[in-house]
Design goal:
The chain contains 9 helices and 6 strands; from the N terminus they run αβααβααβαβααββα. It is of the alpha/beta class and about 190 residues long. α6 links the parallel β3 and β4. α3 packs across α9. The relative contact order is 0.17.
Length: about 190
């Protein structure tokens, strides 16, 4: 077997990095803590951004380096008042700089995959046009997904957890397993 055959038979490993944004991941979140722990246990890099930057002073170079090193970027966060946590918004503003992430010379993220892992306290039925909130999950996430048109990021199907306020331990465990399956898919 020649060298080229060996190379062609090797699977190329996708480097997936999870950037989790929860202000109190360990003590204030069942679902986000469970997802982060399951991902970490499965061998994925998990960056607890609130723990890294409790003062909101983001190390832009470090975050850009982490993004550059990843093939697949997972942004994991709860939805608060139909928006992302404050640090995620600040992270977007600081890290996705003109000339680096977008603009005529900003192509550092072009072609990288993104999965949004968003959690919602209310049930899925509440996030229907005819539901309690008169909006859909897709509409809530639209401002984030629209980033792709500036950056060249490739957004994939989001990993959504709804009804987190009422999840049983069994449902929580099942959702964490599903998350690892999604992360493991090539």
């Amino acid at each position: 077997m020649g060298r080229s055959s060996l190379i062609s038979k090797r699977s190329i490993q996708t480097k997936t990095t999870i950037f989790t944004f929860h202000p109190n991941l360990e003590n204030g979140s069942r679902i986000n803590a469970s997802l982060a722990k399951a991902a970490s246990t499965a061998g994925f890099e998990v960056r607890d951004v609130y723990q890294l930057y409790p003062d909101f002073k983001i190390d832009v170079a470090a975050e850009q380096a982490a993004l550059e090193a990843a093939d697949r970027i997972v942004l994991q966060f709860p939805i608060y008042w139909y928006q992302t946590p404050a640090l995620l918004k600040q992270w977007f503003d600081a890290v996705l700089e003109y000339g680096w992430a977008y603009g005529s010379t900003g192509n550092a993220l072009r072609g990288k995959e993104v999965i949004l892992a968003a959690s919602f306290g209310a049930a899925l039925d509440d996030y229907q046009l005819e539901g309690r909130f008169h909006t859909t999950i897709e509409e809530v996430l639209k401002p984030i997904v629209t980033i792709q048109y500036h950056t060249g990021l490739q957004f994939h199907e989001p990993f959504i957890t709804t009804g987190t306020l009422n999840l049983s331990d069994a449902d929580l465990s099942e959702q964490a397993e599903k998350f690892v399956e999604v992360l493991s898919a090539e």
